[in-house]
Amino acid sequence: MTRSHRSPRRTLSAVSLVLLCGAGAACHRSPQDKARPPFSAAEDVVALDPSTPGPMKFSTTEATAGDPLPLPPVTARVSTVESLTAPSFAPLAGRVVNLNVRLGDRVAEGDRLIEVRTSDLPTLQHERRAAELAIRTRKAVVERIEKLVEARAASQNELTVAQSELDEARLAAQMAAEKIRSLSIKTAGATSYWVLANRAGTVVQLDATPGKQVGPDGDKPIATVADLEDVLVLADVAQRDAPALTPGRTAEIRFPDGAAVGISGTIESVSDVVDPERQTVPVRVRVKNDRKLLRPNAFVSVFFMPPGEATVVGVPASAIVSDGARSVVFVETAAGTYQRRHVEVGRQSKERAEVLSGVRAGERVVSSGALLLLNALDVEG
């Protein structure tokens, strides 16, 4: 025995037809009435027959022009502003012997951060002292030759050579002193030095513990100080949402629990390149952080606000149905007459949807029962 199989779409259409016709009304009609459905459908238009009302009522809502829907919130990370951040490195290889700060401490420019013991410092100091000693020696030679020249016991050429050697000694001493000065350290005895803060601010990174080997070959600084009056919020935005973002637009910052604390920032840049791993577009938001509520490395939620001058047509989300290939709404063109329109849908929320084309502001769309009208067209088709 072979069973016939009906497609889900055909079954749904049949159910829709019953609802449109009215189950109770069909029981009291003549055979001629039963053969005539209470609606007509031609191409994209469904017209209800007012003489045979069914139990299904269609609600309509006016399409309105208004602000675009905000982008969905994006999880982002707080970071420091590069121009307000100053790293400190260990310029001479050695071992950490003392820490004068902890992560989060506030420091002034030039404050001592980390003490390092090294064997390279005595060598540099020896070079400087040797150069200073050479200056005294060469100076004494020049003075002696000057007296000999006055007594005609030495030539002018010998004096010129001695003065040249004195100049070389002075240059060597200057270079030795500049070499130590360029390290931006403060010596602590013959074999130790302090790494100093290069600016005032907060210690936002610390990579030093007593006994750790440090030096100029490290892949990151041993300490970083940043001014947190301004911070960056780094967000990875979906590619489809990136075109709507432009530098200068406002973004609202909230904590992960969704609490709004009155923090807003300005989009500083929208990357022209897609992140190859996340397949997202990096966006930088500059935020004024006077209250120090945003801390580096914290995660926050970013809400990108729509531009004030932009308007889009909005309809209830329930008005949007699909015919399988495209999105559809039904527009009420007259009492009881509904026209199918293919539309381009923008962003959607649970209650509203943006319609970028296909519907004009002021037109009334079916907000309840649109799927029944779509199935009525399928039945007649």
Task: Tell me the layout of helices and strands.
Blueprint: H1 8-21, H2 23-26, H3 31-35, E1 39-42, E2 45-48, E3 59-62, E4 64-66, E5 74-80, E6 85-88, E7 94-99, E8 106-107, E9 112-117, H4 120-150, H5 156-181, E10 185-187, E11 192-196, E12 201-206, E13 213-214, E14 223-226, E15 230-238, E16 250-254, E17 260-270, E18 280-288, E19 299-304, E20 312-316, E21 321-322, E22 327-334, E23 337-348, E24 352-357, E25 364-368, H6 370-380
Antiparallel strand pairs: 1-2, 2-23, 3-25, 4-20, 5-15, 5-19, 6-14, 7-9, 7-13, 8-12, 9-11, 10-11, 12-14, 15-18, 16-17, 16-19, 17-18, 20-24, 21-22, 22-23, 23-24
Region (Disordered): 49-71
Domain CzcB-like C-terminal circularly permuted SH3-like: 313-371
Keywords: Coiled coil, Signal, Transport
Task: Describe the 3D structure.
The structure is a single chain. This protein has three domains: 130 residues, conserved putative lor/sdh protein from methanococcus maripaludis s2 fold, CATH 2.40.420; 85 residues, Efflux pump adaptor protein, beta barrel domain (Elongation Factor Tu (Ef-tu), domain 3, Beta Barrel), CATH 2.40.30.170; 62 residues, Helix hairpin bin (Helix Hairpins, Orthogonal Bundle). The strands form five sheets. Strands 1, 2, 4, 20, 21, 22, 23 and 24 form an eight-stranded antiparallel β-sheet that branches. 24% of the residues lie in helices and 36% in strands. It has 381 residues and is of the alpha+beta class. Helix 1 crosses helix 6 and helix 4 runs antiparallel to helix 5. Belongs to the membrane fusion protein (MFP) (TC 8.A.1) family. InterPro entries: Beta-barrel_RND_2, CzcB_C, MFP_Cation_Efflux, RND_pump_MFP.
